[in-house]
Amino acid sequence: MRTVILKVNREEPEIDRIRAAAEIIRKGGLVAFPTETVYGLGADALNPEAVARIYTAKNRPPDNPIIVHVASRDEACRLTEEVPANARKLMDTFWPGPLTLVLKASGLVPRITTGGLDTVAVRMPGLKVTLALIAESGAPIAAPSANLAGRPSPTTAEHVRQDLDGRIDLILDAGPTKVGVESTVVDLTVDPPQILRPGGVPYEELKSTLDRVELHPVVLAEREIPLVQARSPGMKHRHYAPNAKVIVVEGRMDAIVTKVQELADQHRKTGKSVGILATGETESRYRADSVRSLGSRRDLASAAKNLFKLLREFDEDKVDIIVAEAVPPEGLGLAVMNRLRKASGFNIVRAD
Ligand code: TXA
Ligand code: MG
């Protein structure tokens, strides 16, 4: 299969290009497209054969359900059995935007889309080009992140091409994504609602909107959570991992810098090539084969935006090991730490 790449303006999308992409979706094909968070790999969510192609193209385990993207609240309501008051409140506050709601699925949603669950994850994305694609397709669009399963999520069309060239019909290229980590996933089928995956909408903002909302224990897990406890199937699969082995160093700032350098030196002595994932404040203090910065520790939005891109760049540097500084788990930093800990396979070193 030849994969076509089509440039498109993210705020004023060219309608002929959107129609060409929508035509592919309507015929059951696969289109990678930008959202405000990461690039998604889309198919008609109501067409089981089309959704099956997503799993094949990504090598995605069949029990990992897919988020359904809608262009309106009404469309979300048709896909769900009921929309409780707190879900309505979240839609009104954060949609369109990087927030995914898990609700009871209506009979309209094929089981392959929900990975066999009786719930469905719905999200109305915040980018004009994405909303235009959904509207022109005339169907909700099922879309996981457009990477091969287990790889870091793509924040540019080039990342999508690296993973999926020859496996999908089209890539819509609207430049780098703004948020850089995926949407926050909130389960509203439990009381109180639970955050299954931290993401583009910070926990702090959800707490100020809902009376009660909790973090699922897996969000800041320091170990692999036993499968029986993993409510969101995505929790249990290896995720966000570059080819290199990742070590995360957590603790007090000064102790982190000393420990990161110590670990880097140790591994380089054994002949390994080592990359250090630093921050703006610390980057000049390190020596290694490759040192890359997430940006200032005071700007966790830039850390979120840069994380996946930097993990892929370390692979291009061909480092064997990445030693990564922890960032504060506040605001978007919570999503960054969740991804880093998962990327490391919970290889966490304490520096104190
Ligand atoms: O920002 C995003 O969310 C991106 C863009 C493309 O929208 N999408 C994305 O999809 O990150 P994906 O498939 O990579 O991650 C979806 C997560 C998975 O962890 C999955 O297990 C969970 O959402 N999920 C989907 N449906 C669910 C359901 N019914 N119940 C619980 N978790 C669900
Ligand atoms: Mg993903």
* CATH architecture level-2 label of the largest domain: Alpha-Beta Complex
**What is the approximate shape?**
globular
Which fold name is given in CATH as the topology of the largest domain?
DHBP synthase
Q: Order of strands side by side in the largest beta sheet?
A: 1-8-2-3-7-4-6-5-9-10-11
Q: How many discrete domains?
A: 2
How do the SSEs run, as a string of H and E?
EHEEHEHHEEHEHEEEHEEHEEHEHE
Average pLDDT for all residues: 95
Strand content: 15-25%
Q: State the secondary-structure class.
A: alpha/beta
What is the fourth-level CATH superfamily of the largest domain?
DHBP synthase
Sheet with most strands: 11 strands, mixed
CATH class of the largest domain: Alpha Beta
Query: Level of helix content?
Result: 25-40%
Bound molecules: threonylcarbamoyladenylate, magnesium ion
Could you tell me how far the N terminus lies from the C terminus, measured between alpha carbons in angstroms?
53 Å
- pLDDT < 50 runs, ≥5 residues: none
How many separate helices? 10
Protein model, in words:
The chain has 352 residues and is α/β, with parallel strands linked by helices. The chain has two domains: 4-219, DHBP synthase, CATH 3.90.870; 245-350, 3-Layer(aba) Sandwich (Rossmann fold), CATH 3.40.50.11030. Helix content is 31%, strand content 19%. The chain has helices at residues 15-26, 48-58, 73-79, 85-94, 128-137, 157-164, 203-209, 253-269, 300-316, 333-343, and strands at residues 4-7, 31-33, 40-44, 68-69, 99-104, 119-123, 141-142, 170-173, 184-187, 194-197, 214-215, 245-251, 274-278, 290-293, 321-325, 348-351. The strands form two sheets. It has an eleven-stranded mixed sheet, sandwiched between helices. Helix 1 packs across helix 5. The N and C termini lie far apart (53 Å). The relative contact order is 0.15. The mean pLDDT is 95. Bound molecules: threonylcarbamoyladenylate (TXA) and magnesium ion (MG). Magnesium ion is lined by residues 144-145, 153.
